């Protein structure tokens, strides 16, 4: 029975390891966004987690025998197992913060402070090798939980708990302008691995953790692929396809008297910026504009759809019956852009021209964009005189 259990455990874990290995291979080179680097690090940590767990079970069931090194190998495997668990949870947390585009991950200081929990567990695990406070393997090769064992879970799951709470908080934040479908997925994602981890904590011989983790990682990967299709990789904003979808959805669900507004935003003298300062600075200019748009939309009563329409042109679409919201949004965009330009220290003047239009649903999106474009070019002409 012991060998059958070992074979079953090995099969489940090898399948899980192969699945996330394929995911890691597929993600390589697809995106250089910081969020995806953290996603890759979480997968690598997960693979180490699977490998250490599998080797431990094989040794513990005598399926794999190392002679006098059995007990030492068990202790090392468990040490790696718990540290890789914490690393995996940490990189998940950072990855989710990037997806939500929070100010938290823009400051290296806050990320370093958050990582202190990971380093604390690392120190405790090293101390544990000599004290057995967290866990130990006795002379008969039997694994025991130490008096402070619960810390191995608490110092890892704290990242999961914070992720869950912060994601839920963001979900109910009306000023959030990101993809709410993704947000719901992120809120639910930690639940399945957490339940599987608790089950394996209570029933150590139940091999569910690795399988559940690999399947939830697959769900995250599929969501990432969907984002690559629907998001602009440079700015992280929606692309034109998402703008079309937003407008179609609004037209289908609108009520009598509802109004949707569109702002078309175009960078002034952008070709000159690229020609004079290079494409890297041109990209920085586009990032500044996208950040200004996201900041400026926070006051709106309903979520706005912010998209990079193409090149140096952006679009903001939002539902509001008050024309003052359009005027205020234009003012906020110009004000925030000035502040961001000063903060980032770009070596050129960066301004935008903004055109507006609105619809009660009786015109197509192409017509709506066309009206906003005409208004924008009138403003651009006026700024040259």
Topology-level CATH name of the largest domain: Rhopdopsin 7-helix transmembrane proteins
How many domains is the backbone divided into?
2
Distance between the termini: 87 Å
**Total strand count, please?**
6
Task: Estimate percent helicity.
Answer: 55-70%
Structural shape: elongated
Radius of gyration: 26 Å
**Strand content bin:** 5-15%
Class per helix and strand makeup: alpha+beta
Q: Provide the CATH architecture of the largest domain.
A: Up-down Bundle
* Order of strands, widest sheet: 4-5-3-6
Helix-strand pattern: HHHHEEHHHHHEHHEEHEH
Outline the biggest β-sheet: 4 strands, antiparallel
Brief summary of the model shown:
With 385 residues, the protein is an alpha+beta fold. It is 66% helix and 9% strand.
Could you explain the architecture of this structure?
It is a single chain. The protein folds into two domains: 2-230, Rhopdopsin 7-helix transmembrane proteins (Up-down Bundle); 240-384, Alpha-Beta Plaits (2-Layer Sandwich). It contains 13 helices and six strands. The chain has helices spanning 2-27, 34-60, 70-99, 108-131, 150-171, 180-188, 191-202, 209-230, 240-253, 270-277, 279-296, 323-344, 365-384; strands spanning 135-137, 143-145, 260-267, 305-310, 313-319, 352-359. The chain has a four-stranded antiparallel beta sheet, with helices on both faces. The longest helix is centred in the N-terminal third of the chain and has 30 residues, at 70-99. The mean pLDDT is 84.
């Amino acid at each position: 029975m012991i060998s059958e259990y070992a074979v079953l455990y090995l099969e489940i874990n090898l399948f899980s390891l192969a699945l996330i290995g394929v995911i890691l291979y597929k993600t390589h080179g697809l995106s250089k966004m910081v969020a995806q680097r953290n996603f890759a690090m979480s997968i690598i940590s997960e693979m180490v987690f699977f490998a250490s767990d599998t080797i431990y079970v094989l040794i513990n069931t005598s399926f794999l025998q190392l002679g006098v090194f059995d007990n030492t190998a068990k202790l090392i495997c468990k040490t790696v197992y718990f540290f890789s668990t914490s690393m995996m949870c940490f990189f998940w947390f950072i990855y989710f913060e990037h997806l939500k585009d929070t100010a938290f991950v823009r400051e290296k200081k806050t990320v370093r402070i958050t990582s202190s929990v990971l380093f604390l567990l690392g120190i405790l695990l090293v101390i544990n090798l000599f004290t057995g406070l967290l866990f130990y393997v006795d002379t008969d090769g039997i694994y025991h939980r130490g008096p402070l064992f619960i810390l191995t879970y608490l110092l890892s799951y704290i990242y999961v708990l914070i992720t869950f709470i912060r994601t839920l908080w963001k979900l109910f934040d009306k000023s959030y302008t990101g993809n709410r479908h993704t947000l719901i997925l992120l809120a639910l994602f930690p639940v399945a691995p957490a339940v599987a981890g608790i089950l394996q904590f209570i029933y150590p011989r139940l091999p569910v953790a690795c399988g559940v983790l690999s399947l939830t990682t697959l769900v995250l990967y599929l969501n990432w692929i969907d984002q690559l299709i629907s998001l602009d990789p440079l700015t992280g904003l929606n692309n034109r396809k998402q703008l079309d979808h937003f407008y179609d959805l609004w037209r289908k669900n609108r009520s009598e008297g509802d109004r949707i507004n569109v702002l078309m935003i175009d960078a002034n003298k952008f070709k000159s910026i690229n020609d004079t300062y290079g494409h890297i600075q041109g990209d920085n200019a586009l990032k500044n504009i996208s950040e200004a748009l996201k900041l400026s939309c926070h006051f709106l009563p309903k979520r706005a759809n912010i998209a990079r329409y193409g090149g140096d042109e952006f679009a903001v679409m939002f539902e509001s019956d008050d024309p003052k919201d359009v005027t205020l949004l234009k003012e906020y965009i110009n004000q925030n852009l000035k502040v961001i330009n000063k903060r980032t220290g770009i070596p050129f003047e960066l301004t935008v021209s903004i055109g507006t239009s609105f619809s009660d649903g009786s015109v197509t999106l192409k017509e709506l964009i066309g009206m906003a474009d005409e208004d924008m070019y009138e403003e651009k002409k006026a700024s040259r005189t």
